[in-house]
Amino acid sequence: MKATVKEFATVPNHFSDNDDEVVIYEAVAITEPETELGTAWSSYSATLKKLELNIGDTLTFEAKVIAKKLTKHPVPYKINNPAKIQKEG
Length: 89
What we know:
It is built from one helix and five strands; from the N terminus they run βββαββ. It is mainly beta. The chain has a five-stranded mixed barrel. β1 and β2 (about 20-30) form a beta hairpin. About 15% of the residues are buried.
């Protein structure tokens, strides 16, 4: 998969006192077979934080995508378990 970081956001976590950090992506696409998804989101995990992402960064990775809307954001898909993450450029 390939995706570009669009923004960073927080969403309420009903099981914790803290909000969860998430990354919202644009230009999300599956590379094999080539399929354009548009926007998607994922948790801002420790692995992603190590990459020191900035808005506009493009990533390639392997992951599962599920139809799960992001609370308070019009983003229809969630990226689960991204692996083999590479920051382009």
